[in-house]
Amino acid sequence: MPEAAPLGCLAVVGLGLIGSSIARGARRYGLAERIVAIDADEAVRARVLDLGIADAVTGDAAAGAAQADLVILCVPVGAIGPVAAVMAPHLKPGAVVSDVGSVKASVVAAVSPHLPDGIVFVPGHPVAGTEYSGPDAGFSTLFSNRWCILTPPEDAPEAAVERVRALWQGLGAVVETMTPEHHDLVLAITSHVPHLIAYNIVGTAADLEQVTQSEVMKFSAGGFRDFTRIASSDPTMWRDIFLTNREAVLEMLGRFNEDLSVLTRAIRYGDGDALHDLFTRTRAIRRGIVAQGQETAEADFGRARAAEGVPNAG
Amino acid sequence: MPEAAPLGCLAVVGLGLIGSSIARGARRYGLAERIVAIDADEAVRARVLDLGIADAVTGDAAAGAAQADLVILCVPVGAIGPVAAVMAPHLKPGAVVSDVGSVKASVVAAVSPHLPDGIVFVPGHPVAGTEYSGPDAGFSTLFSNRWCILTPPEDAPEAAVERVRALWQGLGAVVETMTPEHHDLVLAITSHVPHLIAYNIVGTAADLEQVTQSEVMKFSAGGFRDFTRIASSDPTMWRDIFLTNREAVLEMLGRFNEDLSVLTRAIRYGDGDALHDLFTRTRAIRRGIVAQGQETAEADFGRARAAEGVPNAG
């Protein structure tokens, strides 16, 4: 693998949870000589200045990006194309553009037509986050031991891919490359459909007439509360994901529904063996996730400890 | 509310996560003069002896229960009726029987016919737990600030209800009473259907041919891993729950499916406003759950901190 040239100027566009975490991490780990923060929202810019996580802060995407060797677009998926169009004519020759969008094929289609010759687009997606949004939600270790997927075009110069890979590795992530289409299928099942069914069951519970919202909240520790975490993620970001990864989401949702029909039938006809069999198989997947360091093995995610500051034992 | 008489002998039947937590808590908080642990599994009995969380340990349900003023059945829902039948003829006059089953109407139907006159059944359900099972998984603070639902028959003597209520309050729980039928509806939406869809999506992901299990595990931090926690809960316990709360689960599953169809249609036809609207509404429910102390407000359940032992900030 060729050694990447040291990164001069890094421009981060959109200083929310992900963008501000990149800026924090790039500074903490010395990954760029200069960090420029670009955000259209004046309140966010003021907050970024206060936090001191960038060398310069601007609302002018064209001027801000003009200085950059690497531009990372950290805006909602639906805004990536329009923002790229504004910046594109002003980019330095040889600049590399990347993004952090949760959908890749539609982002490639939205960005690529705007970029002049000599500017390479290396799409990226760090599989990391929390349910919180905004510049204060970020932290420098967000990407530590998380995966970052890159979906470079086949003809991308290796040096451009390496520039993006080096940033993510510097932030502590493990980098994997695949096609945009495969990315969108993988994320549909590991992220998008899980979010959709979480949003859905929270909505179902909120709308019941036999059970009050107060009861739902009180007795949520039986499982429901787990779903409310991801169902409190940023609405605009998630609207855009479902609008732009429609085909893969509908495909995976179809699988989910087929399987749920089989399970429903097992309940209706009292097929305990079928239920026990599935409930046993699913344990292995969690063990694998814990073994791969993508999840804590602590009971209840360790949240009793997080809430009380005491060990979960008695 | 009448003052409960001090509890003499507490018998805990089934020393798994819940039963062993009750024994630990009863001892720690001095809630009974004597604690008898009853378990049919020799390995569990040996472990309970080692842990020292009961005054006596036996595999003989009849003899063990004969001493008790309060018997708490902590076996899977499908086993509660049979165990009650074995113990019933041997209970002391005036003894109170309770349970911790996640389903109530079917448990009432399974237990009540076996109990002689003078023995009161006060069904209970602590809405608390973790994904782990067995005597080592328990801890004395499991019920702290969690709700415990009691579903006493209308003609239950208040002193009997109070004996059970006092135990749960002593363990730190907040007690609420309702009918068994209402309990089963409330739990269907707050616990049983959430578990079912979690088991289901983990099964769907495991069976895909386009996305490998290895990819599912690697990229699980995008949301999927949250579901694997409850999908690793005890298979026998959960099989029994679905077999015994069939009607309420099917009813709530019907609601879930209706809502998911509407959401699927919004995705198919690109109705971004409908998606954004739901995704905004669902945030309020989580805020309510956090405000009521049933959930941590820490990002990601605080699990980054649980895993690394360091603050989640940078």
UniProtKB/TrEMBL annotation, chains A, B:
Pfam families on file: PDH_C, PDH_N
Domain Prephenate/arogenate dehydrogenase: 8-297
This protein's UniProt keywords: Oxidoreductase
Source taxon at top rank: Bacteria
InterPro entries per record: 6-PGluconate_DH-like_C_sf, NAD(P)-bd_dom_sf, PDH_C, PDH_N, Preph/Arog_dehydrog, Prephen_DH
Coiled coil location: none
Name the record gives this protein: Cyclohexadienyl dehydrogenase
Organism field: Methylobacterium cerastii
